[in-house]
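Notes, Module 5: Reading structure tokens.

Key idea: the token line is not a picture. It is a compressed description, and you learn to read it the same way you learned to read a sequence, by spotting repeated patterns. We will look at two proteins. The first is printed below with its tokens.
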Amino acid sequence: MTSVKFEERRYDDADVSALVEELQQEYVVRYGSRDETEVDADEFAPPGGMFLLGLVADEVVAMGGWRAHANTPGVVEIKRMYVLESARRRGYARLVLAELERTAAESGARAIVLNTGQEQPEAVALYESSGYQPVPGYGIYLDAPLALFYGKDL
């Protein structure tokens, strides 16, 4: 596997916005609609958050970020983790997840939570194999029948 270089970017960066739109279209295919979660670009700015692009040979292959979670001190939420379809099955998602965990812990976070769904079995497998356990639901998908919620202590 080729190594991934991570670049910190703002959530409203043009490259990030293009990837977020690609991810939203994948949600439409898998769930029938876009992710309606409110996202403010400033939530992903240090020190309370971070957004990363993963690059291989200067080409973007993946992204992901974390932000403070629902006024819960020491807990952050992973959002918008995504690997381009052309770059999948090469371990990039695992590298992005590890880098998000590392940077969150470095910032002082003691735990991470995330929301995924039953129509993303590859994401579920990644999180479960990385030590994430089911946690109580939260946010706008709290009662959504296909929503899954995971967490991990750092």
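Here is the second protein, with the sequence above and the tokens below, as before.
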Amino acid sequence: MSYSALVAREGLSESHRLLVDAVPPGSRTLDVGCAGGYVAVALRERRCSVLGVEADPTAAREARMRGVEVVDGPVDDPKVQVALRAAGPFDALVCGDVLEHLVDPWRVLAVLADLLRPAGTAAISLPNAAHWTVRRALVRGRFPREDHGVFDRTHLRWLTLADARALVAGAGLKTVRESYTEAPLPLEARIALPSWVRSLAVRRLPTLFALQVVLVAQRPPADAR
């Protein structure tokens, strides 16, 4: 099932809702890897103006059908980056489950961060490559490839929570908030657990139990650069 079909059936994921909530209302926003424009539509409901970037032509067409302005092409293409510089600066940057699909997310995020105004907001979600399901698969000598999620076969980079923090810091951004998305705990399919147990586990041990990490960061103000 395509991501567009998944969102159409189930709505935005928890991580994408966290990204939308992180963007200040009314922000001029760059939505990197905007897919079919679902996040952009949610951002418009917060009175944001949105420019999307999308490498998949079919997804870009879907986004335009939803009224989203889109720059076509991969965000690591120098020509695309020139177009983004011409369109900037931006108040906010959203990278929802996109950086792990890039050959060099460290360089690309640094380029994108430079498109932000001073004190601008960057909201970034990444799958946690140290999630317990990944560790279990490796112990079993397996590494499954799936259409979605932490085992997405199109991922080129696998980042832990520590890697995600270093990625953001290396782009010259300062993390101001960290959130995590939940997933079933070990044996939860067999044992009914109260929802607060899962939430507590994710808060206490995000490196093990957080399925995704959402980092909200800021570009330093002009007088701090």
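Summary for the second protein:
- The CA atoms of residues 118 and 143 lie 41 Å apart.
- The first strand starts at residue 28 and ends at 32.
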